[in-house]
From TrEMBL:
The lineage of its organism: Bacteria, Bacillati, Bacillota, Bacilli, Bacillales. Keywords: DNA-binding, Transcription, Transcription regulation. Residues 9-69 form the HTH tetR-type domain. This is HTH tetR-type domain-containing protein. SUPFAM superfamilies: Homeodomain-like, Tetracyclin repressor-like, C-terminal domain. GO terms for biological process: negative regulation of DNA-templated transcription. Residues 32-51 bind DNA. It comes from Paenibacillus stellifer. InterPro entries: Homeodomain-like_sf, HTH-type_TetR-like_transc_reg, HTH_TetR, Tet_transcr_reg_TetR-rel_C_sf, Tscrpt_reg_QacR_C.
Amino acid sequence: MNKRSYDSEQVRRDVLREAEALFSRKGYNATSISDISKAAGHSKGHIYYHFKSKEELFVALAQQTIRSWGERWAERAGACRTAVDKVYAIADFVMDNYQQDLLKAGQELAAHPDVQPLTLQALYGLAATPVAAYRSIIAEGMDAGLFSKDDPDRLSMLLGAWLGGLNVFVNTLDHKLLRSLYRETAKMFIQAVAAPGHDDDRAPEAGPQV
């Protein structure tokens, strides 16, 4: 890799890092390309070389964030023995990795009257990564005979809705109480889908935060 290529990639990383901090702190509408340029230490021209607009920059950041979410979940899932363990693990993982401030910035962008249709499509498409993780767990449980045969797509949306409903309390509830609610949600889901004779819903110990 030559120096020019390396420098260009470093600029992109710098811009995305500082943009994440600014969007999370100030929101989408209140953050300007000038703000990001100043924080990253790179000219607006360098930013526009990589991203045609603030909108495109935010989409790239959101996609990078959800890719990282998926990679870290795959690592966490690899330490689980069964699908039951994974339901509890992903409940912990969702709580520990919920980025409320960045999500609010994305909601600001989605609500903007001039937002591009392709941007909306990209933002709504971000949900595919966690839903695919839920579906994989559920399908694994069905294949192992731990969960009753059902529509894994429907169940993955239900699990996502149950866990997602708790996300609004991440910054307001005591974390010990909140974790108990996430794990109770996991327990209720397991009880609801357990195959006959496989209703052992004992929760494993909470894993390390990832």
